[in-house]
Design brief:
The protein has 257 residues and is of the alpha/beta class. The protein is built from ten helices and twelve strands. The protein has two domains: 12-90 and 203-252, D-Maltodextrin-Binding Protein, domain 2, CATH 3.40.190; 91-201, 3-Layer(aba) Sandwich (D-Maltodextrin-Binding Protein, domain 2). It holds the Pfam family PBP_like_2.
């Protein structure tokens, strides 16, 4: 009797363009195994700044997009890059800096803090990488009336959140960071949170399937399974359960907008 060995079934896999903050905070290390258990689908994450992640999706080089710059996300949907944007979770930005706070930036008003920083020519490390965090930072400088006058200590690293914090730590400089990456960051040196609690520091994340009508090779069905799962009670619960030192890093809010 001839037995024909059945070929092993290849695992389904999709590519996600996402941000350094979701990757470096450790969220995906917690979240994606849960999704794989529920669906059998592997996700390969390419973690870059939000602007680069959207550009990847714009070229059809990703199946799903998970980022945090709402204006840019809505523009991407309006261009036909995705059919729909789904809110998924939020956290907030914080301004960290040297404990001694030589620029006197400490408080709960990010715009006032940046004005003090510029006036003192305080050392400030900007990501300078068109990420969601960089977009937010530029928005705050504009609100401070300082888009072109950020002070002599302002430097752009063109890097992700973790490397920007490493530079800030070694240079004893101020850095705008998402709270998730800060909580998971080990090399803090003398840096502490100086500004938090300003409602302008709210940081919303969205998720969307890259439009298969525009890019027929996109694995839209599998990508939609991820979107459906991450906004479901199971996915939202997994986001809420991710903590470091007992502190929750991201707060699920699917269906909020």
């Amino acid at each position: 009797m001839n037995l024909v060995a059945s070929a092993p079934v290849a695992a389904q896999s999709i590519t996600m363009a996402s941000t350094t903050s979701t990757e470096q905070s450790g969220l995906f290390g917690h979240l994606l195994p849960e999704f794989r258990k529920a669906s059998g689908i592997d996700i390969k994450v390419v973690a870059v700044g939000t602007g680069q992640a959207i550009d990847m999706a714009r070229r059809g080089d990703a199946d799903v997009l998970f980022v945090h710059d709402q204006a840019a996300e809505e523009k991407f949907v309006a261009e036909g890059g995705a059919v729909k944007r789904y809110p998924v979770m939020y956290n907030d930005f914080v301004l960290v800096g040297p404990k001694a706070d030589p620029a006197g930036a400490r408080g709960s008003d990010i715009v006032e803090a940046l004005r003090k920083l510029a006036a003192a020519n305080g050392a400030f490390i900007s990501r300078g990488d068109k990420s969601g965090t960089h977009a937010a930072e530029l928005r705050y400088w504009a609100q401070a009336g300082l888009a072109d006058r950020k002070g002599g200590g302002y430097k752009e690293c063109g890097c992700g959140m973790g490397p920007a914090l490493n530079i800030g730590s070694s240079a004893n400089a101020y850095v705008l960071t998402d709270r998730g990456t800060w909580l998971s960051f080990k090399n803090r040196g003398d840096l502490v949170i100086l500004v938090e609690g300003d409602k302008r520091l709210f940081n919303q994340y969205g998720v969307m399937v890259v439009n298969p009508a525009k890019f027929p090779h996109v694995k839209a069905a599998e990508a939609q399974k991820f979107v459906d799962w991450v906004i479901s009670p199971a996915g939202q619960g997994a986001i809420a359960a991710y903590k470091i030192g007992g502190e929750q890093l991201f707060f699920p809010n699917a269906g909020s907008q």
